[in-house]
Design a protein that fits this description.
By secondary structure, the protein is mainly alpha-helical. 85% of the residues lie in helices and 0% in strands. The protein has helices at residues 10-25, 34-122.
Length: 123
Amino acid sequence: MSCRLPMHIVPIISLLSAMKIFQFCKPPVGVLDPMMLQEMENRANEVASQVNLMLDQIRSHMSEFTELTLQTVNIYQEGTESLKEAFESSIENSANLIMKCDELDKNFGSLYALRDQVQLKAA
């Protein structure tokens, strides 16, 4: 009497058998390959160097951005101050022009009266 296993169980048993064989081939726990450790250390040093380089570049770019932002703020401030002075000057000039026009209007008041008299005599 032979016992046949279902087909879906055979691969599992083969895997378990392979795992038992592999257990006997594994190096003892705690023993590490010195070459692998050296390779890992070399790669870690490379990654650390690349990270340091990247951080230096970021620091440099941030410094440039800060300088450009400061320049932009200064230019904006100067432009705003210049615009304020131009508006104040324009308002002052407009007020002076209105005062001179009022003076001329008062001075021409007597001329208007004279004009009216000349027009009456001419008519």
